[in-house]
Design goal:
This protein is mainly α and 303 residues long. It contains eight helices and six strands; from the N terminus they run H-H-H-E-E-H-H-H-H-H-E-E-E-E. Strand 1 and strand 2 form a beta hairpin. The protein is elongated.
Length: 303
């Protein structure tokens, strides 16, 4: 009699794996669903009871059967909800990023500033392409998991899958079109960028010369008015520096210069840390530059 019970328990020892699984974090959806399918099939085949020979002992399995069926079904629902949630959130995030690329690629024209922005975005897309494709494939695998392992054909999920595919194809097409356009314009773009870079450098030099000119150094000038003008010059200077940085990045993208070497060095007299306006106390100070050097060099790097 005891031997029969031991044999029965040994035969159904696999159920301990179910209890070990309960409460564990979800790591591999396919593995989890496969385990669930196997366990649910085996649980359904557990006999309702075991009666030993001579009917000396009756071992009921109904409670264990009902408990495991309920827990396994609950886990299946939790996994499905998790997969659907991850599928939706990842799809939305990827489509947002791809749409951002698409919008930039679609606005490309002969304007040098638009071309500069598009070239930087195209370079970014090329560097990220493998990662973007991997994310795309992972999301598609989540959709396949829902279809094949949960047998769920939800209209909302299918629409999301179609939308993601449409955005991905649009991204690939617009990326290709933008690349071809920039390639066809490269012979004219590089000289134009060089002209704009030179003009930006000249503007920076002019702003510094203006800030150090007579009117701003004359203590007889109205103090508040001079301060406002210097602050305005400082903002204009910073905007020009930002513009120059964008031009340089675009030039690096077009020429493929990752570690550019200096071609031009423009010595620019660096304004003092403080430009003093007025002769009465308290003395008003307007900072136009925080450089600690007596001179600064604005260096452009391109091939």
């Amino acid at each position: 009699m005891l031997w029969e019970v031991q044999e029965f328990c040994k035969e159904h020892h696999w159920m301990t794996g179910i209890y070990e699984f309960l409460g564990c974090p979800i790591k591999n959806y396919v593995l989890l669903v496969s385990c669930l399918n196997t366990w649910q099939a085996r649980v359904s085949n557990i006999p309702a009871e075991l009666v030993t020979k001579g009917r000396l002992l009756l071992l009921s399995c109904r409670d264990v059967h009902a408990e495991l069926e309920s827990k396994l079904e609950s886990i299946r629902k939790d996994i499905l909800a998790q997969v659907q949630n991850e599928c939706w959130s990842r799809s939305q995030q990827l489509m947002t990023e791809l749409t951002d690329f698409i919008e930039v690629f679609q606005t490309i024209n002969s304007d040098i500033h638009t071309i500069s922005r598009c070239s930087q975005k195209l370079n970014e897309a090329s560097k990220q392409y493998t990662k973007l494709e991997e994310r795309m494939e992972y999301i598609r695998s989540l959709h396949e998991l829902i279809r094949n392992h949960f047998s769920l054909f939800n209209a909302e999920n299918e629409a999301l899958d179609v939308s993601l595919l449409d955005v991905w194809e649009a991204f690939q097409f617009e990326k290709s079109q933008a690349s071809e356009f920039l390639l066809s314009k490269q012979h004219a773009i590089v000289p134009k960028l060089q002209q704009l870079i030179a003009a930006a450098l000249a503007e920076l030099e002019g702003l510094i010369e203006k800030a150090l000119s007579g009117p701003f150094m004359d203590p007889a000038q109205e103090q508040r008015s001079t301060e406002r003008q210097l602050i305005s010059l400082e903002r204009q200077f910073q905007n020009t520096v930002n513009h120059l940085t964008e031009l340089h990045r675009a030039y690096a993208v077009f020429t493929g210069t990752e570690d550019p070497r200096p071609l031009h060095h423009h010595p620019v007299i660096d304004p003092p840390n403080e430009i003093r306006v007025g002769t009465q106390d308290p003395v008003s100070c307007v900072s136009l530059s925080q450089s600690q050097e007596s001179h600064t060099f604005i260096s452009l790097f391109y091939r």
